[in-house]
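Below: protein 1.
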Amino acid sequence: MIIKGKEYVVKMHGNIYHCAMDITMDYIGGKWKTVVLWYLRNKTMRFGELKKQIPEITEKMLSIQLKALEDDGVIKRQVYAEVPLKVEYSLTEFGKTLIPVLEAIAKWGRTLGENEGKLKEVKKKEISHA
């Protein structure tokens, strides 16, 4: 990265980064991490709740993403010794620093969707009681 005309790298957690975006994307890059973080930004959620919010993600991929975000200190996993086992996910204080970034990304996507796409309401399927 260039700062005041001089080239620098950042050495962090055993990695070498050549630009600030590289650092950011190491934490939130990929298709699913930002989506998971988006749903956790305002509340604590269980695995099943997250899966309902992101129906396109497989359970395996959601599990992988949650583990990676936990390993990076962005989310915390709270396990309650109950039967059945209760596990909740939430943003850490460090993770909460990403909220303005997530909101900016969402705003950009919303604007692009409004300008380039077509908004279509999703109708909930009614349950038949035959």
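Below: protein 2.
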Amino acid sequence: MDLFEKILKDKGPLGSLSHIDDNYYMFPMLEGEIGPRMRFKGNEVLNWSLNNYLGLANNPEVRKADADAAKEWGLSYPMGARMMSGNSVHHQQLEKDLSEFVNKEDSILLNYGYQGVLSVIDALVDRKDVIVYDSECHACIIDGLRLHIGKRFVYPHNNIDNLKDQLERASKIVKETQGGILVITEGVFGMSGNMGALAKIVELKKDYNFRLFVDDAHGFGTMGETGAGCGEEQGVQDEIDMFFSTFAKSMASIGAFVSGNADIIDNLRYKIRSQIFAKSLPMPLVVGNIKRLSLIKNSPEFKNKLWEIVHAIQDGLKSNGFDIGTTESPVTPVLLKGDVFECINIIKDLRTEYSIFCSGVIYPVVPKGVIMLRIIPTASHSLSDVEETISAFKEVKIKLDKGIYQKMGEKGAVLS
């Protein structure tokens, strides 16, 4: 069979919906200044779909730092990979600042979060090692696991008893191979919003020999007393061996980092292929991220405002009978019963009739028969934004219960 013919026969769960896409559900285009109010299809919408947790994307100090750095350095500097010609005192300064903030000895800057996770996992393990991971880990972790040519075992989400079983299996294997065990989980899981059971996992170190890798993309900047993440929130930051986060969430930027023991980090610098064979992070991003981190460290009012909005919308949704699952973080899933077409119609209705922009999540990210409306509160939102959104959701829920969105689906899956 021709390769392209085979590909076109299987578009995948999301690709199978491409024939109805009109930039309402998939590949929508928001316009205007990043913030709670943006423009969509020519109309202003209240936006709950940006991971701009602390509202730094349009912070005046951040914008000035970005602009000044771009003017001074341009986007090309430095040219080359860090190991060859792409290093600078600013790159090293950001790594130092990040290490201090997350209470680790050293850090490595990464160009992207997704790419960075793949490369860190690849650099940490070989065929003798076993990886044990949470079933709800992000796609970047799953793709990193696919690169691993050794054994890997999965445990049901936050199921510590099953994790013990997998560690027993892994321990028997590494006893023969003379390898090691890497446990991978997340700080905050990006769909459910609940935290990885970090405190319970580190307790298992008393009985099993493993190292812990935590992807805290959604926890960095939002969780813990200082914003250092879920390890700080649960009092086990010191027990996290590899702490990873992206700049694409609370930092409202591009890039990522991994932190840990100085000797291990130094070892990774000579092995991490995504950095050895790729151009260094551009200087405007590095300088801009130094400014962002400084604001996170020295301006607790951003996180305080975020949590004021988080509590308001989560409490408001629950008091009005909505199921928001098990979230323990700003990530706010609103769980409804319905099919793919109902979800698409709800999203379009929210955006056209109520001027509410949020993301709809369908199978395979959530089980069949479940619709998730994913709300991302930020420090830039207001309490009136919360009230407006809950009011719209109440009306949408009534329509869903009456079968209105199903009838729309039967007529062609999209609103006319």
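The first helix runs from residue 3 to 9.
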